[in-house]
Amino acid sequence: MKKLVSAILVSILTLGSMSFALIEPASAAKIKNGASCKTVGKVVNQKGKKFKCTKTGKKKVWKEIKAAPLGSLQRPVPFGTSLRIGDFKYALTSIQPGVNQEICNFNMFNDGCTTNGNFDPIPDPAYDETWYRFIFTAQNVGNQALDPTFEDIGVSSLGTVEWEGIFQPVAPDRLKDLTVLPGSTATGAWYVSVKNGSIPTLLVVQIGYWDKKLYFFKLS
């Protein structure tokens, strides 16, 4: 009886070893672009890369799924995260809506400003926009002193962009007025006026006049 039980155990172990031997090579096989696969739509992760089984013509092959670049519309820069653009690393660190009175205090001729009976600068009650202050840090990672200037800046909501432009309102903390030495970091603001009732979800930046590439920063 003991011999029979032993024989059964040996058979089970042998079959298990054979099964494992058959499965192991498949699970250990390396996946790469263009290699054949079986299940269309299946997604696997391998060493930090993501692959999807895709049907191309009559073949089923693995294709690497590459993440959208940071700063693109598909992958906007998270709040507080740095993005290198040219010789600067920019990070959006603070958002302050409703700074109309502050803007008017700096110059009564700013958009949306007027004066009261004592000629004190106040927000124009007929102005239908709200001024936002966006505070950035700008680290100069280049090798010469530069101004961290954007060609255009705006906000996006519901798939459209409201542009403010390079002509910023008068304010003492404008980032565009600074010159940053190599290896140094400066903090300053950009301002955008937003239509009342609009809820911006993205800050949109264009660096150069001829460079039409846009960079997107999350606002929430």
What does this structure look like?
The structure is a single chain. The chain is an alpha+beta fold. It has two helices and 13 strands. The strands form four sheets. Strands 4-5-8-11 form a four-stranded antiparallel sheet, with no helix packed on it. It has a four-stranded antiparallel sheet with strand order 10-9-12-13, with no helix packed on it. Mean pLDDT is 86; it is low at 12-28.
What are the defining features of this structure?
single chain, 220 residues, alpha+beta, 4-stranded antiparallel sheet, 2 helices
Radius of gyration using CA atoms only: 29 Å
Q: Can you summarize the main beta sheet?
A: 4 strands, antiparallel
Structural class: alpha+beta
Chain oligomer state: single chain
How many DSSP helices? Answer: 2
Low-confidence stretches: 12-28
Summarize the structure.
Helix content is 15%, strand content 37%.
Topology record:
Blueprint: H1 2-28, E1 43-46, E2 49-56, E3 59-65, E4 83-85, E5 88-97, H2 100-106, E6 113-115, E7 121-123, E8 129-140, E9 152-157, E10 160-163, E11 185-195, E12 202-206, E13 214-218
Antiparallel strand pairs: 1-2, 2-3, 4-5, 5-8, 6-7, 8-11, 9-10, 9-12, 12-13
